[in-house]
Amino acid sequence: MQKTPTLFSYLLTALLSLTATSAIGADTPAANDDASKPVEVTADKLVSQEQKGESVYTGHVIITQGTTVIKGDKVTLHHPERKLAKAIVVGQPATFKRFMPEEQKWVNGHADKITYDTEKKTVLLEGDAYVNQEDKNSISGPKIYYDLTQKTLSAYGNREEKQRVKVIFQPEEDAQKDAP
Fold it and tell me: How far apart are alpha carbons 88 and 73 in whole angstroms?
């Protein structure tokens, strides 16, 4: 079961690498690689309200920093006093991907809504949430929540809609080689 938290660490690193001020993003060498690169945001439209501390990007939004790519229909950045407090990515679906050099693999995922709260240090994927480490483990469900401080993962099903959490663990390569 040790591999599951690693998968979600990759998800978080992918999302957090967009905020160079994040303590979690600075913890890993891979995050430092992307964190030192410029952030590029492209969209059909931007409305920025500096006094309100909010910027809203709409229409085919693509955020790129190094190997991290996040796409959505709408991205809202809450930045009171010019410091990122919360990023909300909405799409059908909102997607992310990031190459993890230490694993030489891609981590990707999607959800209808991805919320990163820098103050609470949490990431919430809602609506058809899915995270996958290339050729490895994956998790899916209506809601996936990760607390960066506690390093805890919670995934939730939805009884009313009969949606359940699903985790797939791939066998380790060493175990496959040792098998008769």
Answer: 11
The answer to whether the CB of 30 falls within 8 A of the CB of 13 is yes
- CA 177 and chain centroid, separation: 32
Q: Which residue type is seen at 12?
A: L
pTM for the structure as a whole: 0.73
Q: Which two tokens stand for residue 33?
A: 């690689």
**Residue 89 to residue 57: CA distance in whole angstroms:** 10
Position 72 scores a pLDDT of 96
Q: How far apart are CA 179 and CA 136, in angstroms?
A: 18
Phi, psi for residue 3 in degrees, rounded to 5: -75, -30
Cβ within 8 Å of residue 119, ≥6 positions away? 85, 86
